[in-house]
Design a protein that fits this description.
2 copies of one chain form a homodimer.
Chain A: H1 13-18, H2 31-45, H3 56-65, H4 68-83, H5 97-121, H6 124-129, H7 131-155, H8 168-174, H9 179-216, H10 234-245, H11 255-260, H12 262-317, E1 328-329, H13 330-340, H14 346-356, E2 363-364, H15 366-370, H16 372-377, E3 380-384, H17 389-393, H18 395-398, H19 401-411, H20 413-431, H21 437-460, H22 463-466, H23 472-496, H24 503-517, H25 520-523, H26 525-563, H27 590-593, H28 604-616, H29 620-630, H30 635-667, H31 672-683, H32 690-694, H33 697-709, E4 720-724, H34 732-740, H35 751-755, H36 762-766
Antiparallel strand pairs in A: 1-2, 3-4
GO cellular component, one term (chains A, B): membrane
Subcellular location (chains A, B): Membrane
InterPro entries (chains A, B): Ion_trans_dom, Volt_channel_dom_sf
Chain lengths: 767, 767
């Protein structure tokens, strides 16, 4: 599932030549040429590494393959396939097995169509060399086999196990779009050997300490708090001390020995110091170190592959000029950009051209052309400094003295402070008892205040700017307030109509009310910085979310087969079996005493929640002992295994990622390309004031609009302004590349490989 | 206690000039000159930053101040002062208060003498400007005042509180030798502002979630497992959710809500994701980032200060030569090195000279001279390839065929493997029941085998090389085996004499037996690498040990005053009060039910163990609730405060340090100076084979001795060989400097400051 993927599987130059595509001379470029070049650029921009066929039919198929609709559909069917677990036995909502299997067949059909489509796009021998294609085919075939066996068993009234369900999340990893996820899996696999040696050493230390505990403490005839013998069984000691490393049974495991003598505390403190603090730090260090190292290598290759693709696009579009370097002229370039990214405005495209063609030559060489993919990835916000619609409608009113005073008031710092205070008062009111009529009615007052705020802001600021794509807090505010208004109106109309008040609606109103308070964070600059950093690394964290989903799903499937219905939850019933979760084997265990009956593997939702609890680690020994009690001692291995994989490996990689992303955010200067783009914007006097770059967009809007609102707008100001959303990344890859940019040579675009005539696969040389 | 210390408080050039010290001309250097230069070099070598007076008397006093004896005495008295807590009420071993106060007076006297000595060494105005001196004086005065008040109260039969005990650990921080510790405190203080903002944001998130929990869940009328109302008190919810961030009450705190509805699980999972995973990673990131940044700055200043001192030493010893750069000749240099480090062998000194004086000019300039401090810090092991003493005694026997065969056998890889197997068998035997006579007697067999191993090795290898300073495992082996032999003999003679077998002796024997097994680790190269890294960063970790000691001591003192004797431990008595730890307020609490009675603040040892348990975090809410139950709810603040300081700040700094140290160890190349020294060693053909540099010393010994043992020792090989213990650091500072060496300019030795005539304090410019 995480086979070493050649991330630079891009078409060979010779393949292009072989198909007779003009790569020299000044022949007019055909539509096919532009399609091909556009695909190269778009692949470079999004770091797609698909070795597609360059024949016009294949290119057309490839364009369709990359269309957003089939991609969304694919993900929808993967999610549908995964969510079948909700309806299959053991089910949250039971459905007959023929229904779920019919849906699964439909999903399999979609996956097959997708893979066939893919097979038509890329050359046959490449298709069969790629591990992820084979993986998908094997998953489809195995699932079919499993369904047939299960159906046959079912028909003959035997119980079958749907074992192929474990394979489902692997589809998420192996579809072509799962690049980030595959990379995360690769970084785990690369770190494994080193983690393994540290883990062995850790196990050795664990065994030595267990032996010492057995001999030193086991002989004393001590008993635990339940009266059972203490530290007398070697295997149990190993498990107990392993649990101690996760701190879950501290200090309980120490107490009997500590009660017997102060000196035994030294044993445990030494153990915790060595195995918990030292070894766990070393795990993090090893994981972090490997992660950084391999990621750097991957990103390096990614950048080389990207430059290759751009060079190839250049080769397609270049004009051969006698005695001079080949170049691409502006007309072709324009058409290319229009094809690659139709939503780029003309002004923006001209700006990009002027960055590339710095000397106004009307054509650009290879070096300048190669930048295009990165340039397109830099988000340039085109600020149209439009006048406020009210100003256009009735300028006299909007420009009148009271109106201008109002604008000034709303833009004043005090306005923000007043509303922060209102939010704080609101927080207190929420905390108070809502049975009180005064409090209940105050909600209306607060709602109107918030609505008033939004309306005032809309009066002062240009509405389209106010609701621009990047004004996170404006959107947040408006959605929350409007939703709260609607929900409150529904609720009061239901109450006044004498209908029973719906608990859910009340809950939603309450959540919306509390969420409103979060707005305060945006007023304090320090907080905004931290929050913005978190929002920025958010998409990358989602990759880890997928990773966790895959691992959880596999463990949930296995866990459900092993432990389903061994532990029962009785809810509010007064069944005496409730005290021991419906399984007499649990009588007297901590599991039953702590009322953990709902922590079970009886359906996929319970399983996932239980796995979250295991990830949080605390009390996982009680849970594992509980499930061991109802099955077999070896069941503990399932839980230990989960702990090693999720907590020691994945969580550490997650922490490593957050650390690295934070350091980059803290210390990074804008990248080379962004700076050259910004320089150009400034040169052309199109820039929004520098300090606003640091601030969020709403403030930038304010600066512009206030100039206009107060009529001081100088006429020599261009009506179109640019601003680089320098801290946003369109793709996770861009964040990663930025992470390691400082180590990459900007001039190295694999020219060497070009000269060697070996153009296709830098990784083969690198390896 | 952690005032910004000017780490570059070194004497001003002008001060030296003022005292009439010859700093030019070819006048013969006096003993005073050499003393002064030696102090500068030694200060540079050990990064001491003391602004001492340069008058001959002050220099003599300063030499005495730096002598090891008063330093050891000072630390002894600090430890004595700290350990008084064992004997003071609440005491482990009660002593009358006049006895402890007498000892404390003695300690104060020693500290006073030391500070007076220091005051005589450095200029008066510098003394009073230094916060750490004032700190020490204030501590001494306050302690005296406290003792007088306490004595007076005691005499008039009132109860007094010895509040000045909290100040004791601050002495450890503020003595001149506590450089590392002060640096650790500084790095914490520097990180605090940033941590504070993240913490505020975290608290905001905690408050918002608590409010939501109160409104969403508190209204449902749910009860906890004990039947008490669930999530109805806002303050309790905040505490519970704070505890959940530490994972200590997961999943218990969730269970009542989860049992009521699946949807509440989403609330808790979101909470854990945001506050536990995201925020805790951000804390680590912020701490790590700050730590790295400030440490770099400090080390940079440290290096500048060091170079300043070396330049000053150079100024004292230089010969003014017409029209040429001043230089230091070899004779003066030799005398200086002999004075600074008397234990350096002549050969080693000549090697160092040839590194400095690369062109054999007989004198060295400033640039070469400045290296001396770093060169002295590189540990060069002088390997005298001596013949084995037995060879000298009876060469015919030692060179005979059987003897040579024996040598070959012992040096063979199989020898190591055989002994590893023996150790494994031994491990199994230790695990088996020792009541069995066969097992009991086997111990003698194993002991003899281990003894035999050591004797064989001593036969083959030169004994002084075998027991050289760096042969950690040889020392380890021998000490363990000999101790085990002695303990076993004592034990059996006692048993055979019919005396009751002492449990302690048996325990010691057992521990020694188990420790023997650790030796296996050394046989596996991967493990050896990890262990060696850990051993190398060990001394630096000790600084954190001191840091923890200081914080623990303060918290233990406060905790003892707040909570002493509120909870009692009854041991094996059958007193019914045992069930509730002697305090009826604890009846029915988790604290009593989990039998945590011995986790109390009734003496300093219990307090420390309790604080370790709190550091491990698990169940800290049960402990804090217990102590809150016997005093007041606000007592929980003590525990929360401890958690914030120790777990969020200090442990994170510890992890950051281990991470950084590990990365350096993994990735570092040998530093510039070491390489030049190594180059010289190789040039002079004095090097031990390169690959042995990587390996541990025993193997290096083997290579040499086997050459000689088998008589193949070529006569053209020098009898003296050098080897750089490249991976060892004499001082923690050296490790730190190496950490950031790549960012430091080797040529920058503050010449600029020199030219500006402002020589003394680079930090004033830097700031």
């Amino acid at each position: 599932m995480s086979e070493p993927e050649k991330i630079e599987d891009i078409p060979d130059e010779s393949a292009g030549k072989g198909k007779g595509i003009p790569n020299g001379g000044n022949a007019a470029k055909t539509k096919e040429d532009f399609d091909l070049a556009a695909i190269y650029v778009s692949d470079a921009q999004y770091n797609r590494n698909i070795y597609f066929d360059t024949s016009p039919e294949a290119v057309r198929l490839y364009l369709r393959y990359n269309h957003w609709l089939p991609q969304v559909l694919l993900y929808f069917f993967i999610l549908l396939d995964l969510s079948l677990a909700v309806f299959e036995d053991p089910a949250v909502i039971p459905l007959p097995s023929w229904a779920t299997m019919l849906v699964e067949l439909l999903c399999l059909l979609v996956f097959t169509i997708r893979i066939v489509h893919y097979a038509k796009v890329i050359p046959r021998e490449k298709f069969w060399k790629d591990a992820k294609n084979i993986c998908i085919i094997v998953i489809i075939v195995l699932t079919l086999v499993d369904m047939i066996i299960y159906g046959a068993l079912k028909a003959s009234d035997y119980d079958g196990v749907r074992w192929s369900r474990v394979l489902r999340p692997l589809l998420l990893v192996n579809v072509t779009e799962g690049r980030q996820l595959r990379r995360a899996f690769r970084s785990i696999r690369n770190a494994l050997p080193q983690i393994f040696y540290v883990f062995l050493l850790f196990m050795f230390s664990l065994l030595i300490f267990s032996l010492m505990a057995l001999k030193l403490i086991g002989k004393r005839g001590l008993t635990t708090i339940n009266g059972s013998p203490y530290f007398t069984n070697y295997l149990e000691i190993i498990f107990d001390l392993y649990v101690l490393v996760t701190t879950a049974n501290s200090p309980d495991i120490m107490m009997p020995a500590y009660n017997a003598s102060y000196f035994f505390a030294i044993f445990f403190i030494l153990y915790i110091l060595i195995n918990n603090y030292i070894f766990m730090s070393v795990f993090l260090a090893v994981v972090y170190n490997n992660y950084k190292y391999h990621l750097k290598e991957e990103v390096r290759q990614l950048v080389r592959a990207k430059r290759h693709k751009m060079v190839r696009a250049f080769a397609v579009l270049q004009d051969q000029r006698e005695g001079r370097e080949p170049a691409v002229n502006q007309a072709n370039w324009n058409q290319l950009v229009r094809l690659v990214q139709p939503d780029v405005s003309n002004a923006h495209r001209e700006l990009l051209w002027s960055v590339c063609d710095n000397n106004n030559q009307g054509h650009i060489g290879k070096v300048a052309f190669v930048q295009l993919a990165d340039l397109l990835n830099i988000e340039v916000i085109t600020l149209k400094s439009r006048p406020h619609p009210l100003q256009s409608l009735c300028p006299s009113l909007y420009q009148s003295a009271p109106s201008r005073l109002l604008c000034k008031l709303v833009q004043h710092r005090a306005f923000v402070i007043v509303y922060d205070l209102i939010i704080l008062v609101n927080a207190v009111f929420i905390g108070l008892d809502e049975k009180n009529t005064l409090i209940a009615n105050s909600e209306w007052a607060f709602l109107s205040l918030y609505l008033l705020e939004i309306l005032l802001k809309l009066y002062v600021f240009e509405p389209r700017a106010f609701f621009s794509k990047h004004s996170f807090w404006n959107w947040f505010d408006t959605i929350i307030v409007i939703s709260a208004l609607i929900a409150t109106i529904i609720n009061s109309s239901m109450t006044s109509a004498g209908i029973y008040t719906n608990r859910q609606i009340l809950d939603i109103i309450l959540i919306l009310r509390v969420l409103r308070l979060i707005r305060v964070v945006d007023s304090i600059k320090r907080f905004r910085t931290i929050i913005n950093t978190l929002i920025r690394i958010g998409p990358a964290i989602l990759t880890f979310g997928q990773l966790i989903l895959v691992v959880y799903y596999v463990f949930a499937m296995v866990g459900m087969e092993l432990f389903k219905n061994k532990v029962k939850f009785y809810g509010n019933s007064s069944d005496p079996a409730k005290a021991y979760c419906g399984n007499v084997l649990l009588k007297g265990t901590d599991f039953a005493q702590l009322n953990y009956c709902k922590n079970n593997f009886n359906n996929v939702v319970s399983s996932f929640i239980l796995l979250v609890e295991l990830t949080v680690v605390n009390q996982w020994h009680v849970l594992s002992s509980g499930f061991a009690a109802v099955t077999h001692v070896s069941a503990k291995l399932f839980f230990v295994f989960f702990h090693i994989i999720v907590v020691i490996v994945i969580i550490n990689i997650f922490v490593a990622f957050v650390l690295e992303a934070f350091f980059v955010e803290y210390s990074v200067d804008k990248s080379h390309l962004q700076t050259s783009l910004e320089k150009k914007i400034e040169e052309l006097e199109l820039a929004v004031a520098q300090e606003t770059l640091e601030d969020n967009l709403v403030n930038a809007m304010e600066t512009i609009d206030s100039d206009q609102g107060t009529g001081q707008s100088a006429n020599n100001k261009p009506t179109l302004m640019f601003k680089i959303a320098s801290k946003r990344y369109r793709t996770v890859d861009a964040l990663l590349q930025r992470m390691f940019e400082s180590d990459l040579d900007p001039e190295d675009f694999a020219e060497n490989d070009d000269q060697n005539g070996n153009f296709a696969n830098p990784a083969f040389n690198a390896a």
